[in-house]
Amino acid sequence: MRNEKFLLKMSLLALVVAASPDLEKQGFLAVVFVYREYSGQQE
Hints:
mainly alpha, 2 helices, 0% strand
């Protein structure tokens, strides 16, 4: 499994979202990004 890589991406993504003034937009992009990453790993 690539859990370490996934957790690293999640951590970086959380930092980006926390640092962004546009939380709603970043949050939406984060959800899409995570969904795509998760779906890709399941295949």
